[in-house]
Design brief:
The chain has helices spanning 3-12, 41-44, 47-53, 71-87, 102-108, 121-132, 156-165, and strands at 34-35, 90-96, 136-140, 142-144, 150-151, 166-168, 176-182. The protein is α/β, with parallel strands linked by helices.
Length: 183
C-alpha cells in the first residue's frame, strides 16, 4: 500500500474495506456473475406490499404497482436497483498471499514507493469476527477464464460468494484473499 495508507493503518489500528462496486478492475464483482432471471413477479408478490408500506409520503413516487409489473421489470429492478443498493452495504478488504511480486508493488504502492504489511489472515479474521459475528467472511479468490452466472434466488449465499470470489485469470499473480464485511 502507499506509505500514507500504511501509516494510517498502524496509527488507527484499522484496515480499509472498499465496496466491491468501486474496485479498480471493472470486471471484478461484475453483476453478470449473478443471474436474476428467476426474480419473477410471483416470487416477489409478498415483498412488494411490504416495500410500499415502508415508503414515506415523500417517496410515494417509488411505490411499485404490482398489477402493471412484468417479469422483465422485476428482473430489471433487482439487477439495476435492489442488488446495487445491497452491494453498497458490503465492504471488502483485499490481501495477497505474496509480498514480493513486482507487478503488485507497481499496482498498489505508487510505483514501488509504498510498503507491504504482513498479516496472519486467520488471526485477523477471527479477531474481526469477534467484533462483527455473522457479518464477516474469509474468501479465497478463484481465477478463471470462463465466467458463469449463478442464480441469485436459488442459493443466495453461494451466489454472493461466487460474485465476490470470481476474478479473471489474468489477475492470478495476485493470489488474493478477501475479508468481506456487511454493515
Amino acid at each position: 500500500m502507499p506509505f500514507e495508507g500504511a501509516k494510517m493503518l498502524l496509527e488507527n489500528m484499522t484496515i480499509m474495506a472498499k465496496s466491491p462496486t468501486e474496485f479498480n478492475d471493472p470486471y471484478d464483482c461484475d453483476l453478470e456473475l449473478l443471474d436474476f432471471s428467476s426474480a419473477l413477479k410471483d416470487r416477489t408478490r409478498k415483498s412488494i406490499p411490504d416495500f410500499n408500506s415502508k415508503l414515506s409520503t415523500s417517496e410515494n413516487h417509488r411505490k411499485i404497482d404490482l398489477e402493471s409489473l412484468t417479469d422483465d421489470k422485476v428482473i430489471e429492478i433487482y439487477k439495476n436497483y435492489a442488488f446495487p443498493n445491497f452491494a453498497k452495504t458490503i465492504g471488502v478488504s483485499c490481501f495477497s498471499e505474496k509480498g514480493d511480486n513486482s507487478l503488485m508493488w507497481s499496482h498498489y504502492t505508487r510505483s514501488h514507493k509504498g510498503v507491504c504489511i504482513g498479516f496472519d489472515l486467520t488471526k485477523l479474521y477471527f479477531s474481526l469476527r469477534d467484533l462483527k459475528k455473522d457479518q464477516l467472511a474469509l474468501i479465497q479468490v478463484k481465477y478463471t477464464d470462463t465466467f458463469k452466472s449463478l442464480d441469485y434466488f436459488e442459493d443466495y449465499n453461494a451466489s454472493i460468494y461466487h460474485w465476490i470470489s470470481t476474478k479473471s485469470d489474468i489477475w492470478s499473480y495476485e493470489e488474493e484473499v478477501r475479508i468481506l464485511f456487511q454493515t
